[in-house]
Amino acid sequence: MVWMLVGCVLALGSMMDSSFGAIFMYITASAPASSRGTVNGISQTTASISRAIGPALATSLFSFSVEHDVLGGYAVYALFFLLSALALLIGRRLPDRVWEEAND
């Protein structure tokens, strides 16, 4: 049972790493060559700040929701679901054919 859970964690970790790579490939492809370094620097900085602040923010929100009984202590999951849904909606607004338009 433990090894199955370890395998699941490793699979999720590899999917997460692949998604970060894909996101940064899209960012690189969407930036003009003259500002590609700046865009990559800003995106890496944003990702690093998110990784630094995220765990503390999630823990604090979980503690607050348990202490004040907000959504039965599950407010942190509701907030993350809403943020994920918002990111999905924003992502759906991206153009479908960025590379073909750039080649025309």
From TrEMBL:
InterPro entries to which the protein is assigned, alphabetical:
MFS_dom, MFS_trans_sf
Instruction: Say yes or no: keyword Transcription present.
Output: no
**What UniProt keywords apply to this chain's record, in alphabetical order?**
Membrane, Signal, Transmembrane, Transmembrane helix
Query: Where is the Major facilitator superfamily (MFS) profile domain positioned along the sequence?
Result: 1-96
**Main location per the UniProt record:** membrane
SUPFAM superfamilies per record: MFS general substrate transporter
Q: Would I find Mitochondrion among this entry's keywords?
A: no
Q: How does it sit in the membrane?
A: Multi-pass membrane protein
Q: Please give the superkingdom of this protein's source.
A: Eukaryota
Subcellular location, in the record's words?
A: Membrane
**Signal peptide region:** 1-21
Query: Transmembrane segments in this chain: where?
Result: 71-90
GO CC annotation terms, alphabetical: membrane
UniProt GO MF annotations? transmembrane transporter activity
This one is known as Major facilitator superfamily multidrug-resistance DHA1 sub-family
Q: Which organism is it from?
A: Mycena venus
